[in-house]
Specification:
This protein has helices at 7-22, 79-82, 84-99, 107-113, 123-135; strands at residues 52-62, 68-78. The chain has 136 residues and is an alpha+beta fold.
Amino acid sequence: FKNMLERERLESKKVSKTQAVTSNLTGSLADKVYDKNVHIGPSDYVAWLDDRKWAYVRLEGRAFGDVPLNLEYKLEVWDSPNSAGIIIDAVRAAKIAKDRGLGGPILPASAYLMKSPPVQVADDLARAQLEAFIEG
């Protein structure tokens, strides 16, 4: 995306993307933003990608018998429609909050739907909290 040409934004985008992933990890990588074993971040503007994003993911671990296990994959998405469902759910949560006379951040919705919520919660717990909020 062309906003990747704004170099001063890249560091904050790297931090927010890394936090979004590592906040759901356990063990030595939990909540790590700067660790040699975690690299998540934007790279650059690539004109021919248009509205697509590519992510290359490498996961390293250990299997039975402490045997090394590696997984690599490429994820390709069209970005604009990718967030439509999230936005719709966020608007629905805001409407529920408005109807209940609530103001400020809707923490369950933020934790489950947003990359950098005011309060970070594990995805499974955030989903349960959001469902409880919806049910009232």
